[in-house]
Amino acid sequence: MGSTASATHNTAWLFLPGVGRVEWKTRPHTQIGFPAMTANDTTPLPQLTAQPEAPTSPIQPGPVRMTRRQRLTMVLLLTASFTLAVDFSILNVALPRIGADVGFSLEHLQWIATSFALCAAGFTLFFGRVADLFGRKRLFIGGMALLGIGSLVGGLATEPGLLLAARVAQGLATAAVTPAALSLLTTSFPEGPLRDKALGLNGSLMAAEFTAGAVLGGLLTDLLSWRWAFFINVPIAVFVLILAPKLLTETARGNRTKLDVPGAVTVTLALLLLVFGLTSAGERGWAEPLAWGPLAAGLALFVVFFLIEKNTSNALVPVAVLRRNNIAWGNIAGILAFATETSLVFVLTLYLQQVLGYTPLGAGLAFAVLGIGTVVGGIIAPQLIGRLGSRNTIITGLTIQAAATGSLLFINTDQTSLIIVLVATFIGGVANLAAIVGFMVTATTGLPNTEQGLATGLTTMSQQIGITMGIPVMSAIIAASLLRHGDHGAPRQVLGAVLPAIGINAALCLAAALLVALFLRRPAPAAY
């Protein structure tokens, strides 16, 4: 009566409403899950044992306490991930001084940041799948070695070409290590509270990257030299390389031994063109051929990539994975969550420096409140996910972030507006980080361990596309407003350009929450 039956190896079971799950052992030759019997069989009937009814949650609860090895593994992986994340912004406040020392002209300074972002975003999905097929531990260690070498070269560079080569090496290291570290993190903890906690801490550090990078970059540049923004990575890389072989365990590799080269080349070129087009749009405007041309070509290559994946047996990203509701909509939510908060930092940096008159270091220190908010968000996010579920945590986080960002529409040229900025960025940081952890949990749930590199490669790509996409969009809005009103340097004109960007940022947060509410469903459990 309303019961179901199944078998796994030599165990059969019935699920009886009001009783729960009833199991018994079967004979080895049983085919349909029930004991095989003949007319003359005198074997006693199996003894039925009632077991508690299975929980309704698709994720079985795992251990609630970390082992010592798990704690050390988490510290190691989070240290590496945070170091790589900080590299996104640590040089931003030092760009004018770097240009003067190394010989970059003003119009080419942005390539110090763009060369890093192109490689970090362009190759992340490729390396995420390489990690699945050929070993995450191996890729993680190789990427950290490349980071150490690239950082040493960058700190010693005396001419533009060498510095750009160092930034390319750092970008490739980020593309390799970030998905490998995240997949090692997810496979080190079972789905449930421990994984949520680990991803919460990881999300806190990743979301705090712009804040930490701005503050650390300003301190190092003012107190020592911009070269220490490179050198600081070297001892960290050595530390990780010493401990990683002892602490990390190589996870199981996928069954496929071939890498989807056409798919890898196509998606990498598509991402490179997308990032280049977005960067050009922020620098030159959306009407420039160097902006919309690469964007159009990148979108066309994404269509080609989908067709390749649909018709190959060893796909880089199996179409079945892309069609999973939680993978698709989870990553869309992640892109918008990262795009809105990191671009808001950019917008408020202009406001603090050009309207309120803060120095780069002062503006960086003001964002320390945002950094504290992201840490708090990372701490409470697992509890929110446990109570609300990852989907509702994303919706709640993005909605509160929209309200906090919207409150910034009341800022003006008065110094008291700093209070509004500090309160809004703290609340927005907490909410944004909760949404980001919800996205991480959602987009890595329901896949077996052999595809966690793919899942984390997608989440890392979403993060980096969001970071890269948000700033050019906000920059283009501000530039269009300044061109309309003229007198680019006047505080009131800058304020008039900043406010529309803030309003659109808040609207994007609200739109993201609405999309998740309408289209994201609860993910199915993984098949291990």
SSE map:
Layout: E1 4-8, E2 11-16, E3 20-25, E4 49-51, H1 68-86, H2 95-102, H3 111-122, H4 124-134, H5 136-156, H6 160-188, H7 193-207, H8 209-223, H9 228-231, H10 233-247, H11 261-284, H12 289-310, H13 319-322, H14 325-355, H15 360-366, H16 368-388, H17 390-407, H18 417-443, H19 452-485, H20 491-519
Antiparallel strand pairs: 1-2, 2-3, 3-4
What does this structure look like?
The protein has helices at 68-86, 95-102, 111-122, 124-134, 136-156, 160-188, 193-207, 209-223, 228-231, 233-247, 261-284, 289-310, 319-322, 325-355, 360-366, 368-388, 390-407, 417-443, 452-485, 491-519, and strands spanning 4-8, 11-16, 20-25, 49-51. It has 528 residues and is mostly helical. A four-stranded antiparallel sheet has the order 1-2-3-4, with no helix packed on it. The longest helix has 34 residues, at 452-485. The radius of gyration is 25 Å and the shape is globular. The chain starts with a strand and ends in a 9-residue tail after the last helix.
Outline:
The chain is 69% helix and 4% strand. The chain is mainly alpha-helical and 528 residues long.
Largest beta-sheet characterization: 4 strands, antiparallel
| Rg for CA atoms | 25 Å
Which structural category fits the helices and strands? mainly alpha
Instruction: Please state the overall shape, judged from the principal axes of the Cα atoms.
Output: globular
Q: Which blocks of ≥5 consecutive residues have pLDDT under 50?
A: 1-62
Q: Strand share of the residues?
A: under 5%
Tally of extended strands?
4
Measure the end-to-end span: 30 Å
Number of helices: 20
- Overall residue-averaged pLDDT value: 75
